[in-house]
Please model this.
Amino acid sequence: MAEKIETIALARKLADVKDGEKPTLRREMRARGNMELLWFIQWFPGGVAKLSEFILENFAEHVGTKTVRGVEGELTAHQLALLLDEFDGYRGWLLQRTCPARWEFLSVLKAADLKEIDEGETEYAQEQREEINRINIPKLKAALINFARRELPRYIAEYCHNPAVSLSDAPWFLEDLPDLLFRTMDLHGASAIGAIAQTEVARQIFDALDYALAESSFVMIEGKTRIGKTESLRAWCEARPGIARLITVPCMNSDVDFFRAIAIALGLELPHQAALSEVRQQIDFVLRYSRLCLVFDEAAFILPQRFSKRTPASRVHWLRSAVLDHNIPCAIVCSPESFGRVSDLFAKTTGCDVQQIFGARAFKVKLPNSVSLDDMSAIARVKFSDFDARVLEYLASIAFSSKGGLPALEQLAKRARFLAGGNGCDVRLQHLDCAISEITPNACAVVPEPARTLRARGAAASRSDPVAAKSLYLPA
Model:
């Protein structure tokens, strides 16, 4: 069994379902979320083994048949008869793992006999109840968990690869699997979104990408550097790996590097020496049947960085013909300076106006030029939640007033944490003061400066002897 779902095999399944004579599976794929679930499984880090492990660790109470899950306290004769029926075909496995002295007779008993055993006061009924009580249900549940640990990855892989397998064909030992897969996908999405501050930049990017996805549209997002574009893009795509993939466009001029970056984002495994035509063919096939939203960061590199009068805009033309012409949702993200400068020069040199090719189709979004103080504070609270509230307020204020923006925020916080003694140590105002004197000495706080101690001594120590400064601020 393959650890990772093969992208091409999954695309072939979808092609067979769409183009073949399988109306039931076609309806299932059209149902909201089912296509997304398949590509979420394909994307899941560690493959189906890790996904199965996550499900069994977080939803262990769902493992087993309906009767096994419903047993509370002592097992009744009626429940035991139901178990034998549910484990039909696995009876030897069941007997071996629960170790009763004898109980096969229950499979032929009538309902009246079962009732007599459960409710009767005769010596016979008491003897049978004692025999039934020897059945170890916790041991059976543990055995089912181990069985599921072995069989669940095989089932999930078969579901992704085999056109004949439907999501409704849940395995007998985990009847709630479809619901658990969707819950796992929702948990992952909530975790990814919760890891980022909801700044104005993030809100505008999320809104633009949601629009591109909902309307199968092309979006062009422009924003200056150091305002949190890439982190917002990454969070949105990581929250929705079943419907979107992030591609960081390489700065190299080679088309092979460009298409290989797309292939990696789609999960395609290609030989290192694969021909460009082969790479493009597989990408086109996967996009046709997955319709995954492609989000290109550093999109200025889509244009050739070195060109002459006869240089073709091959990447641009592929994007138009293979993605936009097929209404596959897409977004390109860049800084206005880099994209505008390169596209203007390229149009002047080659006569190919990329702005005109994209402009007629693109829904353009211009992001704020800077991060507000409130947003800077929100980012600080998310990224450095272990810091004291006063330290966070002061940190955001200094980063906001400096020219460094978000990078300055991270540098200051990391340096202050190091001076405090590393993760798990209490970062105090004096640690931050020392970091400010080293990284942004000319920055001024735009909020009232909080009360603190050792500022001058810490700043002087950091300039003359950083080691001494570190030892000075280690918590007592």
